[in-house]
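Lab meeting minutes (informal)
Scribe: AK
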Amino acid sequence: MSMEANASRLATDRMSLLTKIARMYHEQGMRQPEIAARLGISQSRVSRFLKEAVTLGVVRTVVVPPPGVYSELEDAVRDRYGLRDVVVAEAASDDDRALLNALGAAGAAYLETTLTGGDRVGLSSWSSTLLATVDKMSPRPKPTASAVVQVLGGVGNPAVQVQATRLTDRLARVTGADAQFLPVPGIVANSAVRDALLADPNVADVAAEWARLTVLLVGIGSLQPSPLLKDSGNAISETEQQRLRERGAVGDVCLRFFDAAGELVDTDLGDRVLGISVEQLRAIDRTVGIAGGERKHEAIRAAALGGWLDVLITDLATARFLTAG
């Protein structure tokens, strides 16, 4: 046998052994020590062969997403807008209730997975998606956050402010955290009233916590209030909405309004908001926005473009809208 033929034969035998080891490990579920003992070779050699099998393409890893999982779309939205993470949920139908259920379940799963126990969580005072998320969460055996802090006063009538308090309390209970409430309106008559309320020791103590937050949970508002918000009184006046539209506003996070490019729209309303400032909001390490639905498409895109979010949890149709064009 010629040297060339002998070398070819050795290469074939080696590939045969490499393939056998790969099948034993990946298809038959044998551990590396078992393979080494079965074939009479060292475990280190088994390990080298397994690595080489991947390099040569004998073993290829293929991820097949199950129905309802949209990892490629999530990656596309994340990369296009420079976000840290994106979660896409599929609603069972087109109605608002199904959308809220899907977003709430996705938001709850994300928080239950990512809250570490030492997080100090800021919570916007009112959002139908935040309500749905917190309702879907279950208490854990150990605390998953150390504090839950309200970052925006209740907006609208007194009943809405009670709901904002209940939302904060509920999230604190399911995470095992201490709750810190902001028992004031979200919008007041003028900046002098805002400053006076911020000077109150009870309010000042809560506001001081905003600089210590590690996570912020927010909804994304649009200038087309949902029926829930209209019915609750938790919407700014039509006159103020019109003024914001004239300035180009399309949406808000914590009542900080921005235009289609995500740039802050500065009006006197900003001086009347009793809540976290733009600078404080942007300084938080991880802001998680939970929002979806066609009514909010432009607002969600603007929030992502403007860097108002680090993580977006949204629905399938909105994610496709964000990657279109």
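Next up, CB showed the second protein from the same session:
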Amino acid sequence: MPELPEVEALKDFLTEHLVGHEIVRVLPVAISVLKTYDPPVGALEGHRVSAVHRYGKFLDLETEGGPRLVTHLARAGWLHWKDELPSGPPRPGKGPLALRVALETGAGFDLTEAGTQKRLAVYVVSDPREVPGIGRLGPDPLADDFDEARFAALLEGERRQIKGALRDQSLIAGVGNAYSDEILHAAKMSPFKLAASLTPEEVTRLYDALRTTLTEAVERSRGIAAGRLKAEKKSGLRVHGRTGEPCPVCGDTIREVSFSDSSLQYCPTCQTGGKPLADRRLSRLLK
């Protein structure tokens, strides 16, 4: 799933390639991708893109005198830029293409989604706050006013495990499964630790890890073409998706805890005092 650093890089990429250009055609290929109907998607046509914004994991294309195109790429969605779009109309079918946006130059982009769970979402709205997911977002962790005191206040009284709290978009916007693993590894903290139980020293450590991990990921992604961002994300991850590999800090074997539709990775030596966490799904299989 694209998270804050990748969506921030896409915002920068689209700012460079879209701003000042006119949208001449918006072609929904998978009707399920459209989550709004008024204004219609065709209302974007004939308007120039004036700015590109990011809200958490949402991308927002603002136009001059027209509506806005807001996208959430979900777990398996992606944006593919093309300097020259195919001349013929896309064929509806079972392929990954969900929506195409064409510019007056002949360039444009496709939104695609792999897999069978279709969660990619496109909204055409007058104000991004009309999108339910944006309206519920918590503060952006890279905002100038997101200081340690504000972070501590968010965690105060939070009875969930810190892994789940970091991923809650209504608490903090933009962090998903991958970067929450990376942040907790950098903070040397168990993903199962209760957020409300953190000491002031642990809050400081987690806050520093949050800001540093995301800032470094954004810097790694800056200037990279949209098509290469997935590979860049994977290459920069230290523990997430690296089950069985050695920890780059201590050399211990990276372990995994599996859930019904996701998994987390961690280093026992760095994060849990050398003790492996119980993998409930594996335990059930062994019974």
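CB comment: The two ends are 32 Å apart (CA to CA).
No objections, moving on.
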